């Protein structure tokens, strides 16, 4: 089976942030990105309510309640992990309540038949045909609870908007501790530091299984 045509990861933290400090110059000053990367960064907005900028390999978007770092370059999955880990090792007192480690994959299907095959197998049409004339899968979400560490894994399957005919699969590995204490950020960073590769591999296993249904 072919590899995904577009392959990315996204790291999301929910909590309380000061968007204005998340400027490329701050990241350069803290030795989190190279000086040239900071100088060449494309800044969309730096504001007390939201900051957004991108380098040639990642995009950072920060709102007052959400931090997001994303890359669509498979060779930069680990550098993104290191960037986020380094950022919140410095901002170690940031209140953070939830974390999502997300895998983003777009697969170009070899034919319309195989593209439809994924939808037919994951969402059979027979139950719908008595009330719809041409039912088709637009979005399917399945969730599996996880106890240690606490949270869940959520898989979403949709038609791809980037490759046609294609399938988009997003695997959301969500982490949330019941007791919100000052150690929550530390716990999240330990997961990010020690389990990143396993999380990527686990997400890929799910995605590859799902996409194989169309072949």
Topology, element by element:
Elements: E1 6-15, H1 24-29, H2 35-40, E2 42-46, E3 50-54, E4 59-63, E5 66-71, H3 77-90, E6 96-108, H4 112-122, E7 140-146, E8 151-159, E9 166-175, H5 184-211
Antiparallel strand pairs: 1-5, 1-6, 2-3, 3-4, 4-5, 6-9, 7-8, 8-9
Helix pairs in contact: 3-5
Which features would summarize this protein structure in a list?
215 residues, alpha+beta, 9 strands, 30% helix, 33% strand, globular
Give a nutshell description of this structure:
By secondary structure, the protein is an alpha+beta fold. It contains five helices and nine strands. The protein has one domain.
* Spatial strand arrangement across the major sheet: 2-3-4-5-1-6-9-8-7
Q: Got a strand count?
A: 9
Order of helices and strands: EHHEEEEHEHEEEH
Strand content: 25-35%
Count every helix, treating DSSP H or I runs of 4 or more residues as helices: 5
**Rg result:** 19 Å
Number of separate domains? 1
| Unreliably modeled segments | none
Percentage of residues assigned to helices:
25-40%
Explain this structure.
The chain has one domain. The model has no long low-confidence stretch (mean pLDDT 94). It is 30% helix and 33% strand. The termini are close together. With 215 residues, the chain is α+β, with helices and mostly antiparallel strands.
